[in-house]
Amino acid sequence: MQKKIIGLTGPIASGKGTVKKYIEEKYGGKDCRFSTVMRDILDRLGIEKTRESVQQMSTILRQNFGQNILAKVIAKDIERLDSDLIVVDGVRRLTDIEYLKDLQGFVLVKIDADPKTRYDRMIKRNENKGDDKKTYEQFLKDHEADSDYEVPIVMSHASKALDNNGDLQNLYSQIDELLK
């Protein structure tokens, strides 16, 4: 059976992780996350994982090994995963979709919510050290970082969309419809 590969794109705290987790739990999907590579390296180096350090590691890898290096890693991970349903979390750059779009079964899905809602969610989840202390202005500035400024362009290439302004049940219903 052909793999279904769902690439998730969206701005910071739009719900990509929530969508990934739901697909894993309800449908048995496996995940590949772009930031996993950077987080693994930072762990090995003993460097604290902040949004800034993850972004810096991404920049270092891409500048030194090619803009599509992380997409190549994701593609290899997809090949190794023993699952017909794969979720790729964090597609952020045009070079990523240029590489991933050629994988059989790949579909790009954008997830979005209004900025204030996303800010509140980021504060609550505190995924990266210091996120819970950021001001709304700092949160908006994060969208201009090297790793995030292409996200709106990448989102425009998505063939499917999820609106995450509602409650979880609304989002789950949209995911169920997407996977039918």
How many domains would you count in the coordinates?
1
**CATH classification, class level:** Alpha Beta
Strand order of the largest sheet: 2-3-1-4-5
Mean pLDDT: 91
Largest sheet: number of strands, sense, barrel closure: 5 strands, parallel
Distance between the termini: 16 Å
Task: Report the strand count.
Answer: 5
CATH superfamily: P-loop containing nucleotide triphosphate hydrolases
String of helices and strands: EHEHHHEHEHHHEH
| Shape field | globular
Category from helices, strands and their pairing: alpha/beta
Report on the structure:
The chain has 180 residues and is α/β, with parallel strands linked by helices. The protein has a single domain (4-175), classed as P-loop containing nucleotide triphosphate hydrolases (Rossmann fold), CATH 3.40.50. Helices cover 52% and strands 14% of the residues. It contains nine helices and five strands; from the N terminus they run βαβαααβαβαααβα. The protein has helices at residues 16-27, 34-45, 51-65, 69-80, 94-100, 115-125, 136-142, 151-155, 168-179; strands at 4-9, 30-33, 85-89, 106-112, 160-163. A five-stranded parallel β-sheet has the order 2-3-1-4-5, with helices on both faces. Helix 2 (34-45) crosses helix 3 and helix 4 (69-80) packs parallel to helix 5. The mean pLDDT is 91.
